[in-house]
Design a protein that fits this description.
This protein has about 625 residues and is α/β, with parallel strands linked by helices. The chain is about 35% helix and about 20% strand. The strands form six sheets. An eight-stranded mixed beta sheet has the order 2-1-11-10-12-13-14-15. Strands 7-6-5-3-4-8-9 form a seven-stranded mixed beta sheet. GO terms for molecular function: long-chain fatty acid transmembrane transporter activity; long-chain fatty acid-CoA ligase activity; nucleotide binding.
């Protein structure tokens, strides 16, 4: 019989063995019963760290802006490469000096002072970066104009931000001259980043910048800047109408800059920007995020699918961006033996379909895809921090308890009326798990919605009242999302894109995904069109065929029949040589919807889905007449 002391030692030994065995089993148990526990913890750790930093910056006196963050990076590593562009490398110190020259020139030549709004009309180039930084050092908010727009759209975008000065690239002079009479009437000062220009009403500022001093500017020049001051005007893409100028405060600039950090990007990474700098993805997440991280940016004038991976290999890119259709463009390139020969480990963006996501990973290797959901003007967002394909984020405990996270919800939405469904008390109705609903985010002092410059009507449309209780106020995202039983968030469709036909809701993104499964179709843009005498809108698709292929009337019908109910199958197909997209690769639909399916107005080949024949047939004027007269039943 053991005496008490050895017995106690033995019991303790067994206890330790049990504890150690339990600890050894803990990861396996967590992975089995809580498969996303560790990823949740890493995300919450990073997000909380960013939240704490933002609160510190809010309380700092004087205010600590992204410009101060840049100046800290200049001091910390002046010789480090900041921008690599077309064979040239610009260090942090060099960009700092160039921005000082811009600021000093604009201060003396244009008399710019804190609070003056300046519109930038430039393409992707280093000069864009130091021109913006120069303005920021003066405390001047910049309106980032899309360099692809012209005429009335350009004048509209310039006018709504209230800018008094326009700075344009030399190669965009023709576009400026087109609206110059209107600018002159408004008393707008126009500067061209060129050494000479003979156009009356346009001043050249190239030489003034070149001769200006590169001495640092006093922080007192922007002493009144604070967290809620407008830092930028960034325009919506204009997929459903004219672009709107979203107010971007310094608080929003900081919040967007943290996305890289949340995704695991470090100061050692090399970040590839080939998206337009006038857009929030390229500018806020890409450029400003790289300033916050202190890393190196490889900047390209525009996206090129054929040169993408060569660029990544040449510059040792470790983090890439995507938006809209860019990953699909990469997947559509001819396969090469060195497809996986790269150092890219993170891809950040939004708008990738689940099937393309899978194909991208299978072909190009293990890359973490940080698919996110956000809007430039919105107060709610998600990001996929797990390895689950097809999701835009996940609801975790942080989003439920943190004051800095908006109280978000999904509410029932009437597609036909394009408004939330309300109960007898006039309040919005919640949706259940796996049910599609309108995403709304509570408007609070921590999660404000500022709105659009010069467009109070559109601002008010985005404010939704009486959601949970009478008198509350929420941001109306205009997007339909779904949350599953594991709390993963899925993007479903945009309110304006989803349409109702035969009493059923049709999601354009879902139909487009199925259409691109058809062997002959390369791209598809799905929308709903009005038909006289019918309620709702019937499905139509503009498609681009693969090179050298003809439209397969029978197979297209067969594929759609296999995957879609009758009401969701496009009854009209329009063949186009190319599909019109925005600068950020989002499909444009407004013009297509307006043109409808009338063969007398449309020169593109049109097809009609003949259900009895189980194939698409050419849409003749006789068929069109029979549809309008309702002799053909839809």
């Amino acid at each position: 019989v053991l005496n008490s002391k050895p017995r106690c030692l033995l019991v303790n030994m067994y206890l330790w063995i049990t504890v150690l065995a339990g600890l050894a089993l803990l990861p396996a148990l967590l992975k089995t019963f809580f498969p996303y526990f560790f990823q949740d913890c890493v995300y919450m750790y990073r997000a909380l760290g960013c939240g704490i930093r933002l609160n510190v910056y809010k309380r700092k006196t004087p205010f600590y802006s992204i410009v101060d963050c840049f100046l800290y990076a200049v001091k910390k590593h002046p010789r480090k490469a900041f921008i690599q562009f077309e064979g040239k490398t610009h260090s942090y110190e060099e960009v700092d000096k160039e921005s000082n020259k811009v600021a000093n020139a604009l201060r003396s030549e244009a008399g710019l002072r804190e609070g003056d709004t300046v519109a930038l009309f430039l393409g992707n180039e280093p000069r864009f970066v130091w021109t913006w930084l120069g303005l920021a050092k003066l405390g001047c908010p910049a309106a980032l104009l899309n360099f692809n727009i012209r005429s009335k759209s350009l004048l509209h975008c310039f006018s709504c931000c209230g800018a008094s000065v326009l700075i344009a690239a030399a190669e965009l002079r023709d576009a400026v001259e087109e609206i110059l009479p209107a600018l002159k009437e408004k008393g707008i000062t126009v500067y061209l980043l060129s050494d000479e220009c003979t156009t009356d009403g346009i001043q050249c500022i190239g030489q003034a910048i070149a001769k200006a001093s590169d001495t640092p500017l006093s922080p007192s020049l922007r002493s009144n800047i604070h967290i809620r001051t407008t830092a930028l005007y960034i325009y919506t893409s204009g997929t459903t109408g004219l672009p709107k100028a979203a107010y971007v405060t310094h608080e929003r600039v900081w919040a967007s800059s943290f996305i890289q950090g949340v995704c695991g990007v470090t100061s050692e990474d090399i970040f590839y920007i080939n998206l337009p700098l006038y857009h929030s993805a390229g500018f806020l997440i890409g450029l400003v995020g790289s300033i916050e991280r202190g890393n190196t940016v490889v900047l390209r004038r525009k996206f090129s699918a054929s040169q993408f991976w060569d660029d990544c290999r040449k510059h040792n890119i470790t983090v890439m961006q995507y938006i809209g259709e860019t990953l699909r463009y990469l997947c559509n390139m001819p396969k090469k033996a060195n497809d996986r020969d790269h150092k890219v480990r993170i891809a950040i963006g939004n708008g990738v379909r689940a099937d393309v996501w899978k194909e991208f990973l299978n072909r190009f290797g293990r890359i973490h895809v940080g698919e996110l959901y956000a809007a430039t003007e919105g107060n709610v967002g998600f990001i996929n921090y797990t390895d689950k394909v097809g999701v835009v984020g996940r609801i975790n405990i942080l989003s439920k308890v943190s004051d800095d996270m908006p109280f978000l919800a999904l509410r029932k939405f009437d597609i036909e009326k394009e408004e939330p469904v309300r109960n007898a008390e006039g309040l919005c109705i919640p949706v259940g798990k796996d049910e599609v609903g309108l995403l709304v985010g509570k408007i609070t002092k921590h999660t404000p919605f500022v709105g659009y410059a010069g467009n109070e009507q559109q601002t008010e449309k985005k404010r939704l009242g009486d959601v949970f209780v009478k008198g509350d106020l929420y941001f109306n995202s205009g997007d339909l999302l779904r949350i599953d039983h594991e709390n993963f968030v899925y993007f479903h469709d945009r309110v304006g894109d989803t349409f109702r036909w035969k009493g059923e809701n049709v999601a354009t993104t879902e139909v487009a995904d199925i259409l691109m499964m058809v062997d002959c179709i390369e791209e598809a843009n799905v929308y709903g069109v009005k038909v006289e005498g019918h309620e709702g809108r019937i499905g139509m698709a503009a498609v681009k065929l693969k090179e050298g292929r003809e439209f397969d009337c029978v197979n297209t019908c067969s594929v759609l029949a296999n995957y879609l109910p009758v009401y969701a199958r496009p009854r009209f197909i329009r063949i186009q040589n190319s599909l019109e997209v925005t600068g950020t690769f989002k499909m444009k639909k407004v013009k297509l919807v307006e043109e409808g399916f009338d063969p007398t107005l449309i020169r593109d080949p049109l097809y009609f889905l003949d259900l009895p024949q189980k194939k698409y047939v050419p849409l003749s004027q006789e068929i069109h007449k029979s549809i309008v007269s309702q002799d053909i039943k839809l």
